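Extended Data, panel c. Modelled sequence:
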Amino acid sequence: MHEGVKNIRFAVLAAAAGLVLTGCGDDSDSGAGSTPSAPNSSTPITSTPTPTPTTGAGALPLTVSRTGGFAGFNDQLVVGADGVVNATSMGKSPGKCKLEDGFLSTLTDAVKQVDWAAVGVTKPTIRHPDDMIIAVSASGGLARLDDPKLKPLVAPVGTLLTEATKPGSLCKPV
């Protein structure tokens, strides 16, 4: 791939991640002057978690889905306890990669820091047109990555999305 294209893709990904992390617009009056949109193909595809989240278990597997946004993302990653990631990106054939042990440890530690019982099961919904939803589920909990209860996962999941959708140094193809 041409270096300029790589730089543009990185810039778009970084900008999108920034929007997710900082929010987009003022949520204090989220319904005023807007027409609600019905859920469509940008609704996240996630596995159905168990109905009762476990407190502090934080065990893998971990499922991350990224849908919507102006780029039309449709990615799903399932990380197993063995560090193997099953990735589906933009509807392409599933791929697999194995996380480097150090990064797997970082990700596992972050998952364990989350009180999944407090997270509950909240299916993420579209907040505005071109909303990019990053949903995370583990130990029976499900929420958007921008939920404050998932703060320990923000950096590792961002790295995971980058590495597993285009395997690099932290996720080697299997």
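DSSP finds four helices and seven strands in the chain. This feature is highlighted in the accompanying rendering.
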